[in-house]
Amino acid sequence: MQAMETDLGEVLVLEPTVHGDDRGFFFEAWNRRTFVNVTGVAADFVQDNHSKSAFGVVRGLHYQYPSAQAKLVRCGVGAVWDVVVDIRASSPEFGRWFGIELTADNKRQLWIPQGYAHGFVALTDGAELLYKTTEYYDQASDRVIAWDDPEIDIAWPLPDDPVLSERDRAAPALRDAVLFP
Asked: Which residues have a catalytic role annotated?
């Protein structure tokens, strides 16, 4: 596995070592020792989540505060365009975003530390996102920021009519959201 830096210093793209032949492939999706050696982060994951989305579904920008979660995200089926936004008010990267295509074929993973909002759009029908979290889900800490906030100005690769939940449709702008210090 190798780690690639992004424009957001602590957010990393992880590329696993894939062993493949005409029978298929094998790779380690998670190995604590390798993860620590490659990233320098000793993450303690407590929960695995799995979501499935139809083509054009936008989910996010989601985060938890104060019970913050770091996440390790990958796409197990299909393809998504995954986005991370720095929402740490004291960060020099505050409000900046990073986006990457995660697919079942490229097997890339995205390390999202605490202090970042996360969202994605399904680029294929039946896209499945798998992610590990360092904290349990806490409904009282569950937060959302508008996926289309013009101040963040994310360049989403969207279909003409993206599909959103009512919660995501009504999400506040970054300037009105509860932020990390």
From this structure: 62, 131
